[in-house]
């Protein structure tokens, strides 16, 4: 763990970003960032997998994302109230318990062979992730001086892509590569002419899909017991357990920087999930790649994201967070334009490149929005976790565009797959506006 310091502008003293006193709890809580990164990014490719296994439309298969990220949205406020009433550690334990339960429910779901059962499993799993994120993000912010809290959170978040890369690799090698190679067309014929044989094919594929989720469920259960028996320090304000919801919400809603941060976070998560979920469909529909080959490009995108996260975390030492956010959102906008209007591998390269621009966004928006909220940050964190619900709403909208016919724009005819990326384009405009307002309007409050 590198020793990082920030200069305190008031007294000129170097303040450690991560002090020795909190090193162990910091490492332990930071491990959770990788755990939920794994869950997020083993799941994104499952939209394409369920489309094949269940013979659904793009829109129907994207309900995986609706259920997955819907859990974040529904459970964020209850999680925040629970944490306020008890402790961050209690919230983490509940989160790990629900995460493990949801993953292990893939066993009965695969036996039932119903798409709805998997959606319920995903929902329960992400109710756990909602507890984990609502607990861990503000807990990391509280582990030290406020002036370097955003850098500390960015550093912890830098380990999230490591879990994401692992999840992507597992999805590629242990799920997509092991699914039966029967095409969607032949599966449809089997479903109509030999339903018993089709059910056997489905059972095989669902058992393949089930394995990694059961494995992560058991690993998460192990983490539950590690946290249960570990002593974690209480943060400032945790001794106060009075909920005081009404006045807290009033203060939060009257804080423009916070409310704009929630809006920006909603659109950011939507953009991230759309770009990472549908990179497979882009590669398949535009370039004729197989699912596992397309997932390889998704892994490249995540590797770029991971490297960029560390670089951008370092740059925060020298640049205003709002200005850097504005620059990266502008870059994301330009790259998505290339994805839409440039056909072939170059368009795919532009889509991969978007990940470099997204790397800084979630923790920076989060840190900007929560800075200066004091104990209100516990409930404020819930609003920012609810914003992850953008990942449940926007991907199905993009999938519904993909299900349409090609668009005749006069001079050119654009495939529905490329046209659908207009939604991430809009998202980056919203994020750029927030970055601009953070640096120019909210600068005095940041």
**Strand content of the residues, in percent?**
under 5%
According to CATH, the homologous superfamily is MFS general substrate transporter like domains
CATH topology: Growth Hormone, Chain: A
Structural class: mainly alpha
Enumerate how many helices there are, as a single number.
22
Largest sheet: 2 strands, antiparallel
Spatially, the strands of the biggest sheet line up as 1-2
Shape: globular
Secondary structure tally: strands: 4
Radius of gyration: 22 Å
CA-CA gap between termini: 27 Å
CATH class: Mainly Alpha
Would you kindly provide a written description of the structure presented here, covering whatever features stand out?
With 446 residues, the chain is mostly helical. It has one domain (19-231, 238-440): MFS general substrate transporter like domains (Growth Hormone, Chain: A, Up-down Bundle), CATH 1.20.1250.20. The protein is 75% helix and 2% strand. It has 22 helices and four strands. It has a two-stranded antiparallel sheet with strand order 1-2. A hairpin with a 4-residue loop joins strand 3 (407-408) and strand 4. Helix 9 (160-175) runs antiparallel to helix 11. The chain is globular and about 65 Å long. The model is unreliable at 1-13 (pLDDT under 50).
């Amino acid at each position: 763990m590198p020793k990082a310091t920030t200069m305190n502008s008031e007294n000129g003293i170097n303040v450690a970003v991560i002090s020795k006193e909190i090193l162990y709890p910091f490492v332990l809580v930071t491990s959770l960032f990788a755990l939920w990164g794994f869950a997020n990014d083993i799941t994104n490719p499952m939209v394409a997998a369920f489309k094949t296994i269940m013979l659904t439309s793009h829109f129907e298969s994207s309900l995986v994302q609706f259920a997955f990220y819907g859990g974040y949205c529904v459970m964020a406020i209850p999680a925040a109230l629970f944490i306020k009433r008890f402790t961050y550690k209690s919230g983490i334990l509940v989160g790990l318990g629900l995460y493990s339960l949801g993953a292990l429910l893939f066993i009965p779901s695969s036996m039932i062979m119903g798409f709805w059962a998997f959606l319920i499993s995903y929902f329960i799993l992400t109710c756990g992730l909602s507890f984990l994120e609502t607990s861990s993000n503000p807990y990391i912010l509280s582990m030290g001086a406020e002036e370097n809290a955003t850098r500390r959170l960015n550093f912890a978040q830098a380990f999230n892509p490591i879990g994401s890369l692992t999840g992507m690799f597992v999805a590629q090698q242990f799920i997509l590569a092991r699914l039966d190679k029967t095409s969607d067309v032949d599966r449809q014929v089997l479903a109509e002419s030999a339903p018993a044989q089709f059910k056997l094919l489905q059972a095989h594929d669902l058992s393949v899909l089930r394995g990694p989720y059961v494995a992560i469920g058991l690993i998460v259960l192990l983490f539950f017991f590690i946290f249960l028996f570990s002593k974690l320090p209480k943060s400032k304000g945790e001794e106060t357990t009075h909920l005081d919801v009404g006045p807290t919400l009033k203060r939060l809603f009257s804080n423009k920087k916070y409310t704009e941060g929630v809006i920006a976070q909603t659109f950011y998560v939507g953009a991230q999930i759309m770009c990472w979920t549908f990179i497979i469909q882009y590669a398949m529909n535009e370039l004729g790649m197989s699912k596992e080959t397309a997932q390889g490009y998704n892994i490249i995108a995540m590797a770029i994201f991971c490297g960029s996260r560390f670089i951008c975390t370092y740059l925060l030492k020298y640049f205003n967070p709002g200005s850097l956010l504005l620059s990266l959102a502008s870059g994301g906008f330009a790259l998505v334009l290339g994805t839409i209007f440039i056909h072939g591998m170059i368009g795919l390269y532009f889509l991969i490149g978007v990940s470099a621009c997204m790397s800084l966004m979630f923790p920076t928006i989060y840190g900007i929005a929560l800075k200066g909220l004091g104990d209100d940050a516990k409930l404020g964190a819930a609003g920012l976790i609810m914003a992850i619900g953008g990942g449940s709403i926007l991907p199905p909208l993009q999938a519904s565009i993909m299900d349409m016919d090609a668009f005749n724009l006069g001079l050119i005819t654009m495939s529905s797959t490329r046209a659908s990326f207009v939604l991430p384009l809009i998202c980056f405009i919203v994020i750029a506006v927030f970055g601009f307002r953070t640096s120019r309007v909210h600068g005095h409050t940041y």
